[in-house]
Fold this protein.
Amino acid sequence: MRGTQSLLGRRELFRGGLALGATALWTPGVFAELVATARQTEGPFYPDKMPLDTDNDLLVINDSLTPAVGEITHLSGRVLDRKGDPVRNAFVEIWQVDNNAVYLHSGDNRRRDQRDVNFQGYGRFLTDSKGHYYFRTIKPVPYPGRTPHIHVAVSKGGKRVLTTQLYVKGHPQNARDRLFLSVPAESRATVLGDFQPIPDSSLGELAVNFDVVMGRTAPDEGPSLGIGMPEYQARRGRRARNR
């Protein structure tokens, strides 16, 4: 598994302002607060078996020489509380379909034989002292019944504290997507990202910023304590306890 340090140079670049998108929105008033990122379902395809590599570069698995297919996208942002303070030592997870619209999940049988085996499908990153995170992935593509999106989850203190989805700003399928439309109109800007071309990129790379604002208090001290339990596992545990 490659360390995230190899990608920090790129992350610093995008902090400089190239990445655009769902930057945090303030509510008006004397005691202004940031608008919390809208919550969304985890969906059925959180990986049921983790890839061999779970770092923040989803384009290359371990030391492979063959990258994944798709529009290279640099996804960066910050995890913040409602007051605008950074949330450090939080684990940010992302997962999404590959360029052929196939998830890294045993239950996604639609086009399993077409899955891009060079796409990691899932990644995680521990926020720094200023709440920053960074991923290199591909621009999401639609699959039957859904507009393009990237699943995002945040864990703090060993507990899952937020699950949401990042959508492509201006994509025509957003207007027909049931889950996107379930977000109140006044909160939709919190889950939209503006995927912009990076000037002078010979590979046609894109950049998008996605600030995640926690709607509940998250302690900012102490160790990360790992990844929180996915929703499907939590539901399974509740059912077992209720039997």
